Fold:
Amino acid sequence: MDASEIQKKLNNEIKLFLYLNSFPKIPNNVFLASGVKIIGDVEIGA
Structure:
């Protein structure tokens, strides 16, 4: 597996999760690092 294939897998990683009927609000300009999990009633950014 080359670097571009690894990057594609990381970009498809699930990072946002519904919890108690609430889903995180994250703008498109926010970078989410590999391994991060954002769960529930959370808002990041302006």
